[in-house]
Amino acid sequence: MIKDKEYHYKEFRNKMGMARFFSLSVAFSAFISFVLILNQLQKNLKFFQNEWVYVIALLLIIVASMAAYVYLYDYRLRKALQKLNPILFDEVDPQAFTDYLEKTMNFDKKNISPSLWIAYLMGLSYLNDQKKMAFILREHEDILKGNVEYKIYEFSLYPPDKQRREFKSYFNAISKHFKDTSSLEIKSSMLNHDYEKANTLLDQYEPTSNLDKVSWHHRKALVLYGLKQKEAAQVHIDYVIEHGNTSYYVKEAENLKLS
């Protein structure tokens, strides 16, 4: 049974609050502990009795404590964001998913963690909102570029010809992060218009969520169109239209049906 969206929002808010409290507690405890150690060193070692040495050491402790908070909070927030996944993957509602994340980010504009941006980008990708995606990747490149998701969403914004040219290097860069690379292999086959191979790979692929099922039927319809099997594609187009909810797949399926 699909639970009400408010249930998932509440679960996320609770986890997010706990993540912030835990991270602050750990960072503050670490700060106090290191300051006490520093003060003890100052009493026992002449080196730390130098005023500049003490100030520099204290600044390093402050920076390290802040870094610990940022790292811990982002790590635990990524776990908390999983509470919103049913809205996207089960209900196939990227619009509700991104709308809620927007409200969350607007509430705390100065302290948006990388994990929150990545989740927001994921939602936008299923809305095919390339303008917003490009803006986020450009404006927050400094905190996002180290994440594999940055490469994935950056690549998704390339035009098809550039994707074809750079797919090999893209595959080598991200494939190690996936247990199953069949989806990437399907993407490669479709980019190269090898619809026979793509069709075979799709028949072997097992979708893992409702959203993945919609994506599968969308790709299946495109491949069958590529194979000039328009009648066979209709059942897949109808599935996408019926089950695609707010995802961009619905509009693409409707356009495909009219072509």
Detailed description of the structure:
This protein is mostly helical. It contains 14 helices and no strands. It is elongated and about 85 Å long.
Element layout with pairings:
Blueprint: H1 5-44, H2 51-81, H3 85-90, H4 94-107, H5 114-125, H6 130-139, H7 141-144, H8 148-156, H9 160-174, H10 182-191, H11 195-204, H12 210-226, H13 230-243, H14 248-258
List keywords for this structure.
14 helices, mainly alpha, 259 residues
Approximately how much helix is present in the residues?
A: over 70%
Give the N-terminus to C-terminus distance in angstroms. Answer: 36 Å
Provide mean pLDDT, rounded. 94
* DSSP strand content: under 5%
Provide a compact summary of the structure:
By secondary structure, the chain is an all-alpha fold. It has helices spanning 5-44, 51-81, 85-90, 94-107, 114-125, 130-139, 141-144, 148-156, 160-174, 182-191, 195-204, 210-226, 230-243, 248-258. Helices cover 78% and strands 0% of the residues.
